Automatic annotation (TrEMBL):
Residues 68-114 form the BZIP domain. One of its GO terms (cellular component) is nucleus. Signal peptide: none annotated. This is BZIP domain-containing protein. One of its GO terms (biological process) is positive regulation of transcription by RNA polymerase II. Pfam families: bZIP_1. It comes from Kalanchoe fedtschenkoi (Lavender scallops).
Length: 121
């Protein structure tokens, strides 16, 4: 059963979009593994363990990142950014809730002071 309040909020789609994002990340990882890339992002067996300076000295260039690697990094950045945005929103809402409590208290105090004071005519 779906909560009516959550469905009307703009961030309520986070649940469905996060599962779609997880699927995309898994697909990107599968593509990286299928391309024969190691965890370090270098093609398996290429370069012969040479340093980038050695490769440049020999006239060889380091190969650019594959499309799958770029997609994986983009998805990872998006996940991190989304998490940071959720944390910022949580802090912001907590501050707003504190402000509401303070204003309600002040309003109540002002109302009581007016209610108990004599009205000058």
């Amino acid at each position: 059963m779906q909560d009516h309040r959550a469905s009307s909020l703009p961030w309520s789609s986070e649940q469905s979009s996060s599962s779609a994002l997880q699927i995309e990340v898994k697909e990107a990882l599968t593509e990286i593994e299928a391309a024969g890339l190691s965890n370090s992002g270098k093609e398996a067996g290429s370069g012969g363990g040479q340093e980038p300076a050695q490769l440049a000295a020999e006239g060889q260039r380091k190969r650019g990142k594959s499309q799958a690697e770029k997609e994986y990094k983009r998805l990872k950045r998006n996940r991190v950014s989304a998490q940071q945005a959720r944390e910022r929103k949580k802090v912001y809402l907590t501050e707003l809730e504190l402000m509401v409590k303070d204003l309600e208290k002040k309003n109540s105090e002002l109302y009581n002071s007016l209610r108990h004071s004599p009205i000058p005519y």
